[in-house]
């Protein structure tokens, strides 16, 4: 499910969304809770009977409710015959970007695109994935907490999964790095490297960084 | 009228920045442009020696900036060309005694009177480099076909990018065709692979350069010098002409590549 709680409320409107846990009222993280209570009240006044008898879930984002706040929310809802069956903070981490589910592992999808060549002495650091549309020259460093994709030649240093994520990967059109680091693993190019000619992928296997041909059928 | 302010830089020392400035400056003057060369290497000045003008220095760059003299007084007229001038660096001072703002103002003032302002940048990436690039609107990178020089050039290109000089030109200096042919020296492809910027010219290694430098006679004036010919071509390319790279007996594959590079422009 790739959707995020609206960080910026659209014209101060509250949104009801049909999610997999049922009809969900999303209360944005910005502005005060009492502001949204008032907005909810006037919004429901307009629609009145539309949600009558509905069982809803309330998504709060990162917001935590006091008992009193929860009570007053329930009171407003019940005055329109709506029952709040649950409260969730499921999308509290949306500032880290949308998440991808499935395949049994969560992946960071937030990415940063670098246009052009990263040169000696330059360092690009990002909390997410990094994509470079160009070369990474010797002496340049790319550091990402997620994956690193180089649409060019990797000849500098790449550190994927920089916060210790060993499942991160480094993919380069031409892999000729000074060093690759993934999570807490470290590897350097062999002194006499074979001439590389195809896209390759580096990842951790059995505690070691392995570089192999990037196989389009496997991804 | 506004002249072109071009900084000649490299990162690494000893790759031929000063020689390039002397030859390009002289070459431009030879083609009737009004040229001034600024030696921004304060404390380690050389350009005056290479130009053979050392004994004429009275005032220098720092004197101008500190308003101890007028700009006119510090400019040294070349002994061969009426339209070629040198603004020498101070030898007994320090690079921190001038600021990027002051260099900027100086370049702006000179560009009202001259067609070309060439700045000889000191090696390194510190204060002296920052001063030298501050007033420039274009940049020429000089490198030799050595891994260390190319690395430093790459670093410089990155730094220039953040100073809004994002389309620098490259001079590949001191190439030795015989070594390239044997595979013992990086060729133009190898350098271009890393740096990937516009190639302004390739200068062959030439003993004549050493002799002319010691004599204070830029090689660009010598009719029989291969390096001189390369610099004359570079000057014409700076003026906007399309000039094919001269023959250096490289392997034909290389030439195909070069021809392609210049035809694409």
Question: How would you characterize this protein structure?
Answer:
The complex is a heterodimer of chains A (219) and B (265). Chain A is mainly beta and 219 residues long. Chain A has 2 domains: 15-93, Transcription Regulator spoIIAA; 111-213, Pectate Lyase C-like (3 Solenoid), CATH 2.160.20. Chain A is 13% helix and 37% strand. Chain A has helices at residues 33-47, 67-79, and strands at 15-19, 22-26, 55-59, 83-88, 99-100, 107-108, 111-115, 123-126, 129-133, 141-144, 148-154, 157-160, 170-175, 179-182, 185-188, 200-205, 208-213. In chain A, the strands form 4 sheets. Chain A has a 6-stranded mixed sheet with strand order 7-9-11-13-16-17, with no helix packed on it. A 5-stranded mixed sheet of chain A has the order 8-10-12-14-15, with no helix packed on it. The longest helix of chain A has 15 residues, at 33-47. Chain A is elongated, with a radius of gyration of 24 Å. The model of chain A is unreliable at 1-9 and 93-104 (pLDDT under 50). Chain B is an alpha/beta fold. Chain B has a single domain (4-264), classed as Rossmann fold (3-Layer(aba) Sandwich). Chain B contains 12 helices and 8 strands. Chain B has helices at 17-30, 47-50, 61-65, 71-74, 100-111, 127-134, 147-162, 177-182, 188-195, 207-215, 226-238, 252-263, and strands at 4-9, 35-39, 76-77, 84-87, 116-120, 138-143, 169-175, 198-204. In chain B, strands 3-4-2-5-1-6-7-8 form an 8-stranded mixed sheet, with helices on both faces. The radius of gyration of chain B is 18 Å and the shape is globular. The model of chain B has no long low-confidence stretch (mean pLDDT 92). Classes of the chains: A mainly beta (219), B alpha/beta (265). At the A-B interface, loops of A face α7 of B.
